[in-house]
Write a sequence for this structure.
């Protein structure tokens, strides 16, 4: 559809999970129908296509806990009304360490679940009856308990998670956590926006002028069309800064490339009912002396011979009757340039596999012989320094940002869309919404508190 000469109430730049969610909640909460979603790519095909599609309400700060809790509630609403088209499951997140008394992790739990910690955190030590812990019996989200089970009893851990190495001493089992299909969520939202009268315009926004309403220039093939919009939303994912620049603004975000590998687990190394598992302990990888010497020689790979912080993910992927597994490790901390070629590292599959073997020794069967057809991919975590999102007004009146969703944009899309729609329409955003907007940088106390946290919740 040509947008030439058209005029909309809201133009949303970017049709990833976030732009779609903003448009969806504008329709759903405020009945806005004159919406244009603008994107040169297929909807959901950039960062949103790379998501591990996991969700959790575990964060080291109560604002992020409340925000993701709200998002999970909204996802549940969609799951309920769509016959679970978004494939929501809830086997939890299992955060694993070899430390027998991780007081810092438990402290993070109490801080994150502020006010409800006593009610939702259940400690299971060697004195507790095993029956007090209810492992996930099914993947159904409706069946899972709330809160967190902290397993400190090695016998209980071995009985519940026999695939883990025997040195695991503590498991934090976050129960309000699991997986969804982000693609289905996006498709569901796009259909709702379209059936309410919204448009999807294929093109890149290359100019934005404030002339009464905004006049957007949209490059599409050989032509550039113009669209007038009363309000504009910057939901451009890794290109948030470029869109801000069109309006003479800057945003405090950077893009950090992270990778995953998925492969067919022909040996059945990973139990199909395993929660999304994260090894929190850092490690030095297990190279042979010869490998270590070769890697250490090259400045590009020398780091792989040193200690790397934890956070190795492993999860069965797809149906319980399926065979695929996904591994990830967001250890890269260096910002990259999303305009350039993707910096995928050919060593990554081998690195993450070796690291994952420490927790799940059966994966060793694949070291040096990953199955043919293994899929190595990645995308940018677009993030602020404190790893909180940016949702709300930009400096230019009438322009809003919904982005910097780092590694949590699938799980937080619904709350982000809902909060941004409230800002746009002058509704009542959630009590914590101001802290997720650019306004937080005017709150030195909050920023100092965030700078002092021992974890930013990056997984
Ligand atoms: C490897 C990896 C694993 C992840 N795992 C998880 C996970 O398990 N759980 C989770 O919740 N999150 C996860 N995430 C994070 C999640 O994928 C992202 O936060 C989310 O997809 C971001 O969505 P977005 O809409 O902001 O960005 P995108 O999906 O990148 O969409 C932005 C869109 O804006 C468009 N655009 C840009 N500039 C313009 C312009 N000028 N004009 C028009 N359109 C424009 C782009 O074409 C693009 O389609 C992961 C991310 C990565 C990279």
């Amino acid at each position: 559809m040509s947008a030439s000469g058209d005029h909309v109430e809201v133009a949303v730049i970017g049709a990833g999970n976030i732009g779609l969610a903003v448009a969806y909640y504008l329709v759903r909460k405020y009945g806005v129908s004159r919406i244009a979603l603008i994107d040169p790519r297929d909807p959901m095909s950039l960062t949103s296509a790379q998501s591990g599609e996991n969700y959790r309400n575990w964060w080291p700060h109560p604002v992020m806990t409340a925000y993701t809790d709200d998002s999970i509630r909204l996802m549940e609403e969609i799951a309920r009304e769509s016959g679970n088209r978004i494939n929501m499951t809830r086997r939890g997140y299992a955060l694993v360490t070899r430390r027998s008394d991780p007081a810092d992790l438990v402290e993070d739990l109490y801080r994150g679940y502020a006010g409800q910690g006593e009610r939702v955190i259940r400690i299971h030590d060697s004195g507790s009856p095993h029956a007090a812990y209810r492992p996930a019996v099914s993947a159904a989200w409706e069946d899972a308990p709330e809160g967190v089970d902290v397993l400190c009893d090695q016998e209980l851990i071995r009985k519940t998670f026999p695939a883990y190495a025997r040195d695991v001493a503590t498991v934090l089992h976050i129960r309000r956590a699991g997986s969804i299909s982000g693609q289905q969520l996006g498709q569901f939202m796009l259909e709702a926006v379209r059936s309410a009268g919204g448009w999807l315009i294929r093109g890149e926004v290359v100019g934005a002028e404030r002339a009464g309403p905004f006049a957007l220039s949209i490059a599409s093939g050989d032509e550039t069309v113009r669209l007038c919009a009363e309000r504009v939303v910057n939901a451009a994912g890794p290109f948030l800064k470029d869109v801000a620049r069109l309006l003479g603004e800057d945003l405090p975000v950077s893009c950090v490339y992270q990778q995953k590998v998925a492969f067919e687990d022909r040996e059945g190394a990973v139990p199909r009912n395993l929660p999304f598992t994260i090894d929190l302990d850092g490690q030095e990888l297990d190279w042979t002396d010869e490998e270590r010497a070769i890697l250490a020689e090259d400045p590009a790979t020398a780091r792989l011979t040193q200690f790397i912080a934890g956070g190795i993910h492993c999860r069965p992927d797809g149906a319980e009757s399926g065979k695929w597994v996904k591994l990830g490790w967001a250890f890269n901390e260096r910002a990259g340039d999303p305009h350039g070629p993707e910096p995928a590292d050919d060593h990554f599959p081998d690195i993450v596999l070796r690291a994952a073997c420490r927790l799940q020794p059966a994966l060793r069967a694949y070291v040096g012989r990953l199955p043919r057809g293994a899929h190595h991919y990645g995308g940018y975590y677009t993030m602020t320094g404190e790893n909180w999102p940016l949702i709300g007004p930009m400096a230019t009146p009438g322009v809003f940002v919904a982005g910097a969703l780092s590694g949590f944009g699938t799980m937080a899309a619904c709350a982000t869309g809902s909060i941004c729609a409230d800002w746009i329409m002058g509704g009542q955003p959630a009590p914590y919404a101001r802290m997720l907007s650019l306004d937080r940088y005017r709150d030195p106390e909050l920023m100092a508190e965030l700078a002092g946290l021992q974890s930013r919740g990056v997984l």
